[in-house]
Amino acid sequence: MNASSSPPRDSFCFIAQSRWSRGIFFGDNPFSSNTSVLLAQLTLCALTTAVLNRGLAYLGQSLFVSQILAGLILGPSVLGSNAVIRELLFPVSSFYTVDTFRFFGVMFYLFIVGVKMDLSLIQKSGKKAVVIGICTFSIPLLLNLMISRLITMYVAMQPSLYSSMIWIVSFQALSSFHVIVCLLADLRLMNSELGKLATSSSMISGSCSFIWALIVFAGEHGLHVEQETFIIMLLWSGMMVMFAICIFRPMIQWMINHTTDVDSVKESYICVILILVLGSALYGEYLGQHFTFGPIVLGMVIPDGPPLGSALVNKLECFVSSIFLPIFFVVSAARIDFSMISLRSFAIIEGLAVCAFFWKVVGVMLPSLSWKMTAIDGLHLALVLSNQGMVEVLILEQAKSLRLIDEESYSIMVLSIFGLTGILCPIVKFSYKPSKRYMMGERMTIKYTNPNAEIRMLACVHYQEHTPSIINLFEASYPHPEAPISFIVVHLIELAGRSAPVLMPHHPGMRNPSPSNESNPIINALRYFEHENEGYVAVYPYTSISPYNSIHNDICLLAIEKRVSLVIVLFHKHPLIHVSEDETKAIRNVNNNIIRESPSSVGILVDRGTMTHTSTLLRTSVYRIGMIFLGGPDDREALAYACRMGKHPNIRITLIRFLDGSVVTAVSRQMVIDLNTINAYRDAQMTNKQWFYQEELIKDSLGLITVIRSMESCFDLIIVGRQHRDHSPLLAGLHDWNEFPELGCVGDMLVSLDSNCKASVLVVQQPSTLR
Fold this sequence. Notes:
The protein is an alpha/beta fold. It has 27 helices and eleven strands. Strands 3-4-2-1-5-6-11-10-7-8-9 form an eleven-stranded mixed β-sheet, with helices on both faces. α7 (159-172) packs parallel to α14, α10 runs antiparallel to α11 and α10 runs parallel beside α12 (293-301). It is elongated and about 95 Å long. It comes from Sesamum indicum (Oriental sesame).
């Protein structure tokens, strides 16, 4: 029998409860009805899991650890040991109802997992990922089988454990693609080099594990039925797969062809898909297959990502993951009874679990080292791929229902997965820092680039409305035959409807140039700009679809690979874009991560309208740019970029240098460098009639504010460094009123709410390794 229909070993008699309660005002006990008890259980499980995850996330723990811990707390070993609480919230009469709901949640959760899977990753995986994935599964399985054979020969154990040994070893070698991807998302490593390799490798090892589990369960079914019956079962299961490929997939493709974006997906499409999911689960039940077989197959044939895949995930994932799924873990962990675990069995199974972990580390590190990975990166990859989670617990429950493993072994193995995951996640989170590679200390800046050589700039856009601002800034950078510029533009899209992140280049002639229709207008505008400046402008568009909390890794890696001198990000507020507060905060966090970890200089562009109009620089006779200089590495980098702009025939640059006139101070090394920089650029621009220089002698921050306020209406664009000379009296007190620290105190002053400045602002900073 399958998991959803197998009865407990013991039978209980209980008084049937009513389906609903009239309420306390009619004298009824709300917990006397099945409905009230179920609602209380769902609420308590979801709340406990959310609270634990909120606290344990700071310790580097994954959501899976919080879910299992919630089950242990609410189970018979902790709160459930109190008879009053147990009878009130988890009476025996509620078990069948709870089981129905938890399996219902698991069914839709695994359907979502199938929707988010990108099967093309198997084809795209390189040899390294394929070898690592196969070794991750096969080496622990083969070597642990040999060890278990030795243990059964020389160690006395209970008969039930003896008969389960081969299955215990088999299930300890399993791994799951979705578990690894969710772990990488929790650790914010999906876009790192480690995360991308782990994603591809886990797809291979997860496929091997899935096939092995199917073979085990199908073989067990075959032992209890006649051969002809077993063959018929396989044929009918094959029909389910053929239906998914030959009928369901074309139907889904027809829906996608009649849908423009995520918001336009018809409710009728969603309803039809969900009805077919329920029907496929029922079909599996009739065949004796696990009820999740059909939903997983249907989910896998639905294309991941927008529009349909994203719509399904958006509508189902939050409710299923936050409400239905916690009850699954609570019931699974609640079945763990520490009193029934013997020390000998615990030692044997845990010893095998440690061996399986060690063999997985070996299976990952051997091919990693052969591909010239560093030992520490190979170890971190092994620690990530050694994790197990919800999918493995579900397989163990199925194995227990088929009597492949006993209750005691099930409890020990779930505790083993819980303990190992709880140990490995914090180790990876606090020891692996992908940003270390970005901090190379190399001078990838405008200042240290030959002014007459090609430079490379990278720009990040979130919306189509950002495109005119970026193109105008590119034009202002003055690409010309003697100093061409390569522009890398990355369209950043939040990951939705798929598990694995995507970084897609859009080179001419590519078969699939865009994974998202949103990128097409941006790419077309950039191609037109490239065509208009043919010969001295090269544009390389990309689309990055990733979680916002780790999408900056794509930007930093591209900056290193392409030897970028300046990374441009758009300020999270834009006059033409109105989005939700949550999305605005997410974009601001992305910008802050890039500012903090970029190996190149970073420019934060605040468009106040003067950069929005298409071809502004081509239509106007003079585009006025003001450069504020107070001193420091960031101001020197900003000045280097301003000087490059000053070569444009339609741009007039005014350099305003602020001098401290309050007291005579000792001349520092930074002040000498600032003076030499100013003198060098003044000498270089002596013959440029579009270049102006003025000095402002001020005594305090009030004088600084007054002068800056007087120049706000004089320019179309103001360039300023993010940070300035330390402990300058000209900036005293300004940091206390800084609303946007990413802009620095002067940049924040220019864009603050009480400012009447209509000019756009560009805030520049050097990499942190050079400041």
